[in-house]
Write a structure and sequence with these properties.
By secondary structure, the protein is mainly alpha-helical. Helix content is 63%, strand content 0%. Helix 2 crosses helix 3. The protein contains four helices and no strands.
Length: 70
C-alpha cells in the first residue's frame, strides 16, 4: 500500500479531514500548510519522511521499524 493510501486510510479511520489535519499540524508544529497543499503532496506521493512523521504524530500515530519475521 502506498504512503498516500495508508495516510488517507488512517485519516478516514480517525474521522479526520485534510482541513482538520492542516489545523493539527499548525497547532503542534507551527506549520502553516494549506489543505490543498497537503492533498497535492499526498496525491503525488512527493512527501518527505519527516512530513509523514509529523502528520502521523499530530493524529496520534507513530512509525515503527520492525525486522521481518520469516
Amino acid at each position: 500500500m502506498s504512503v498516500k493510501n495508508r495516510i488517507k486510510s488512517i485519516l478516514a479511520l480517525e474521522g479526520i479531514k485534510i482541513n482538520e489535519l492542516s489545523v493539527l499540524l499548525k497547532e503542534k508544529y507551527n506549520k502553516d500548510i494549506l489543505p490543498n497543499t497537503l492533498s497535492k503532496q499526498l496525491n503525488r506521493e512527493i512527501i518527505r519522511f519527516k512530513d509523514v512523521e509529523e502528520i502521523l504524530d499530530s493524529i496520534g500515530y507513530e512509525i515503527i521499524f520492525q525486522k521481518k519475521k520469516f
